[in-house]
């Protein structure tokens, strides 16, 4: 027990929920599954960082998830934003 949290027992084990398994709908989303190889395979195989991996992901899915011109442009702009963030990180600049 603590004064601030009287019901909290420091000696009681804490239950940590195990991670949820990836479902088929997440693992093989149509707009990614149509690509060979899938972006996640490329990202993991090349050992890309989060920012570079997301840039690849959005470039690969542009025009596939949302096939409208607006949807395609939105995905391309997202790719640009991740590339810009990576460049800023490399240059020691903050943020987006």
Description of the structure:
By secondary structure, the protein is mostly helical. The chain has a domain at 24-90. Helices cover 52% and strands 0% of the residues. It contains five helices and no strands. It has helices spanning 24-27, 30-33, 39-46, 50-61, 69-90. The longest helix has 22 residues, at 69-90.
Keywords:
0% strand, 5 helices, mainly alpha, 96 residues, extended
Instruction: Flag low-confidence runs.
Output: none
- Derived structural class: mainly alpha
Beta-strand residue fraction = under 5%
How would the global form be characterised? extended
DSSP strand count: 0
Rg to the nearest angstrom? 20 Å
The major beta sheet can be summarized as: none
Terminal CA distance? 43 Å
Average pLDDT, all residues: 83
Q: Which range best describes the helical content: under 10%, 10-25%, 25-40%, 40-55%, 55-70% or over 70%?
A: 40-55%
H/I helix tally: 5
**Element order: H for helix, E for strand:** HHHHH
Give a concise summary:
Helix content is 52%, strand content 0%.
Topology:
Blueprint: H1 24-27, H2 30-33, H3 39-46, H4 50-61, H5 69-90
């Amino acid at each position: 027990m603590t004064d601030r949290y009287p019901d909290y027992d420091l000696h009681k084990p804490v239950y940590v929920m195990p991670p949820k398994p990836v479902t088929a709908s997440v693992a093989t989303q149509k707009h990614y599954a149509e690509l060979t190889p899938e972006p996640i395979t490329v990202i993991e195989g090349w050992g890309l960082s989060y920012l570079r991996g997301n840039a690849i992901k959005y470039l690969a899915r542009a025009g596939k998830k949302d096939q409208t011109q607006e949807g395609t442009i939105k995905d391309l702009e997202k790719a640009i934003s991740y590339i810009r963030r990576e460049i800023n990180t490399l240059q020691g600049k903050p943020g987006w």
